[in-house]
Amino acid sequence: MRLLHTADWHIGRRLHGFDLTDVQEDAFKQIEQIAIDEKVDGILLAGDLYDRGMPSENSVSLLNKMIQKLNLEDRLPIYAISGNHDSAIRLSTGAPWFEATKFYMATSIEQAFQPITVGNSQIFLLPYFEPFAAQQYFENEKITHLDQAVKAVVEKIKTLFDPAKKHILVAHFFVAGSSVTDSETQLSVGGLAEVPLSVLSDFDYVALGHLHGRQALQADNAAYSGSPVKFSLSEADQEKGVYILDTENMERTFKALQPLRDVTRLHDSFEKLTNPIYYEKIGRKDYFGITLTDTKPIPNVLARLREIYPNIVSLDREKGYQPSINPRSLNVKNQNPMELLDQFYESIAKEDLTEQQKKWAENALGKANREVQK
Amino acid sequence: MRLLHTADWHIGRRLHGFDLTDVQEDAFKQIEQIAIDEKVDGILLAGDLYDRGMPSENSVSLLNKMIQKLNLEDRLPIYAISGNHDSAIRLSTGAPWFEATKFYMATSIEQAFQPITVGNSQIFLLPYFEPFAAQQYFENEKITHLDQAVKAVVEKIKTLFDPAKKHILVAHFFVAGSSVTDSETQLSVGGLAEVPLSVLSDFDYVALGHLHGRQALQADNAAYSGSPVKFSLSEADQEKGVYILDTENMERTFKALQPLRDVTRLHDSFEKLTNPIYYEKIGRKDYFGITLTDTKPIPNVLARLREIYPNIVSLDREKGYQPSINPRSLNVKNQNPMELLDQFYESIAKEDLTEQQKKWAENALGKANREVQK
């Protein structure tokens, strides 16, 4: 059996104010095509379908369309769970009807104990949950942290193991030791919200959601598929895609997606970035995080760059505007105001005051002094 | 065939700040019981399932439970439409799956032209829609008002009529000449949002939603079921319930619901309302709109009444606090301050200042005068 593993669609997400709808739609179409080309037997969708618990009507419409396409038109079974960004209650709407077409949408902890047997495997769907939900479910007040909660869940799941089958878990949490990016919401609020990999060792494969980079975890029997779309500049260098899992040997193959608009860093001088010879070679519609090597002030820098690169998500200077002299080390009280201004201007603008600027400053200082003496 | 006609559940609605969840749940259970007792073949649910387009998680959970109970457990077909309070997009979530169990959830105008043939009838589901949607659907920019829009829709529906069948329409709009209460949202925003009854004359029955009182419209072939719960004081005297429609003769029978907590007006003196002989005979947990006949000030009146009637939704005076003398007619500048106070107090409190009150006022006035003269 072949399964496609994806997660963290975050429908409705924005990137520094930019609407990602068409990028997400395009990534979806690629995922659908991969599912068809690879003749998969189902989709593992490991949580964070929406970016927020109260998604907009546009987001609801978009996700509904995607799920209907996969499940009703392409007739692909879907094994889905809710993530920490989803409202479990909202996402559960209609779920009892969905199973008739093999769309399994698990949103509460007890559903983890209703394995779906398909092909050579048992699939367990464990949605994102708070330790408190496990405390209630197991009636055990000692469960206060996520690692304890997942351990209890896994112990119970193991009692349901059919030894003749492979065991696949779909889950949404942070596995201890994984590396993070800027775009994931930290799960831990005053608690240890990490699950040690060892807790998951009895599964043949754990299809994880939550972390947005597939490199976040290096493990034989567990992987984050990562998000299909880059959600922050810190993901600029990641390759996004999905896994195809072969349940015979539990080998996974990564299938990359080509972003409609990539998230890219540019690091160069203003002169070079605004030179057609440079920018005509690159995809100017990408989302750019630009770091300028310039030190001098550049009037209207953002507006001028946006004429060339319409989707700038951040702009900074390599060396910042850090003054080269620490102002606190200056003996300020004993210095001539014009000298101080001169030094200050030089430290910020990396150039000297012009003669005209000096004249203006001297006039202003003279006027200010006369006011004080009155 | 027998159908139950209900509408305007408005799950999530509050009554002057009071949560109606348990009242709505109780009304639902009664509706379910009527459906079972009357052995109906289906439920017509004519819009405004939710009170708002973005319902809370509690509301989503409650409505999901109700629909699942009726359709999946009781195996009752449901013929539902979205109303002006619903988000059509949100309510459409899962709809393509629902039809497998005969739960029809229509949320867009084109679904009105997909009649469901069942028993001796064709059922047409016309959700609430804006005239603009009809303008787009019919590609006719002359459609700007609701009456024109519904007329165009009905003309098209009639081309789909099977002459061997009865024709039932489920719809959510304001029929011209109907009477309103305080709890319906006016549909008309700068447009004529009324549908003449004559437009509906070719239907054997029009199961309407939108107006909350079943008496709103008097017609042979069309009725508002009204809401199952009272949503305002102006509905205090209404009897709430559902219709049972017999599709053989198109006769409808009203089945009343008993409210868990009623909405009631009380109109009496404070003394009487706080007398156990009076209040121990009535359902003190009801929602009360109280009008006091008293004219004198009553300290802490609301708090004292709430000790007896915990759910007071409004409190006013029969005669208000209207002063009997128009203060503007007084020759204020030439009058003694004590006389003015005397007149003012009498006009508001309907009684004279006591000797003690006069003494306090004189002391205060004297002190104020001395301050001014300093």
From TrEMBL, chains A, B:
The record places domain Nuclease SbcCD subunit D C-terminal at 260-347
Q: What is the lineage of its organism?
A: Bacteria, Bacillati, Bacillota, Bacilli, Lactobacillales
* Highest taxon, organism lineage: Bacteria
Q: What does this protein do?
A: SbcCD cleaves DNA hairpin structures. These structures can inhibit DNA replication and are intermediates in certain DNA recombination reactions. The complex acts as a 3'->5' double strand exonuclease that can open hairpins. It also has a 5' single-strand endonuclease activity.
Q: Name one Pfam family in it.
A: Metallophos
Q: Which controlled-vocabulary keywords does the entry list?
A: DNA recombination, DNA replication, Endonuclease, Exonuclease, Hydrolase, Nuclease
Family matches, as PANTHER family: COMPONENT OF ATP-DEPENDENT DSDNA EXONUCLEASE, NUCLEASE SBCCD SUBUNIT D
The Calcineurin-like phosphoesterase domain, residue ranges: 1-213
Its gene is sbcD
Q: Which GO terms describe its biological process?
A: DNA recombination; DNA replication
Family that this chain belongs to: Belongs to the SbcD family.
Keyword Transmembrane helix in the entry? The reply is no
**Name assigned to this protein:** Nuclease SbcCD subunit D
**CDD domains xref list:** MPP_Mre11_N
Q: Name one GO molecular function term.
A: endonuclease activity
**The keyword Nuclease is annotated on this UniProt entry:** yes
Q: How is the subunit organization of this protein annotated in UniProt?
A: Heterodimer of SbcC and SbcD.
